[in-house]
Amino acid sequence: MKPVEELKATAAQLLEGKQVGLVIGFGRYRGRARPVFARNAADVANIDFGVDGGQNLASYLTRNAIRKMFPVAVVAGDATRRSVDVLIREHQVKPENVVLIDSNAVDARAERDARLDAEIERLWQLSPDERMKFWEGHFDRCTRCYACRQSCPNCYCTTCKADKNRPAWVETSAHGRGNFSWHFMRAFHQAGRCVECGACETACAADIPLMLLNRMVARVVAESFPATDAEKSLLSGWSKDDDNSFFL
Amino acid sequence: MQAEAVTKPKIKIFAFVCNWCTYAGADLAGTSRINYAADVRIIRHTCTGRIDPLFLVKAFENGADAVIVSGCHPNDCHYNEGNYLARRRWTVVRKLLDFMGIDNRRVYFSWVSAAEGAKWADLVNRVSKSVSELGPARHFGSPATQAQEVRP
What we know:
heterodimer; A: 248 residues; alpha/beta; 4-stranded mixed sheet; B: 152 residues; Rossmann fold; 4-stranded parallel sheet; 39% helix; 15% strand; globular; disordered C terminus
């Protein structure tokens, strides 16, 4: 962990030297964490390097307004760093356009993951019907605001499949069927890509345990594909040695 | 006769098959006049790699009791790697469907080549038998699964 003064000096230097057009970090405002966009060295004072707002700041890197200011610096914790790696791997961001500055925020992932794993184990003990009831109970509250999508750095498609209406892959009304399709599709599209930052769950206004789905998919991926090419996206690659046991 | 009117519940199986192998295999089963369960509705695609996981979800939305996904054996794909890409996808999809409440005993994957008409007939018969035993599927958000809505 670097001292805050050093981090602030780094950010200020980058801005003063015009090496970056913007520094994105978290700041505190009336006791709440919120993103801060520093355009000049004086604004750096507003950045708090020890706070994590629950949002993934890498999601800004795919926004057009931010892209105009490239290169930009991001105050990045562990998850944000991995998100930037994903965006670079998927050719959404060029490496020279992002500068990463350390964050001193405390990482509470280990506890959260243990809690999620316990819940996933519990759900696997249930019958499929009971699991369906569990998810129905949660998806019932979903209003399809797509905050989960907007908060996710991985969801950068300009036209989401959920917004297509000819044919309508995902029913647009907040009904159980459409909600199932949406959450299934969202979780599936995260396979091998999700960095488990938890931004979707934080953003969810209906408190749907989205991280359960993400974590479950991540675990399946880790178990089924232990040795995959880090340079390639999981589902755009293949191997002759992939699991063939479930094919009749 | 009254007794005959009460038959086993009709089940619906949707089969997503590839044009080059399984569709031809199913065709062979037909031209060979092999009798097999009539519960299956075959939907032809260019390749198993073309079959989006949402197709399966759509099938269940539209009242499927089971789905079959079938295509060329590994190494036999008309497009060289379509079925390999699909295989990796399904590994994740079947677990995710199971986790979200769609029983894995209702989702079948298979490789059936153009020469395996008998294998196709056998596969459909087996799926039809085991799904009949399971009964009709419970559908997500369908009125039957949710508490009856009370209207004033």
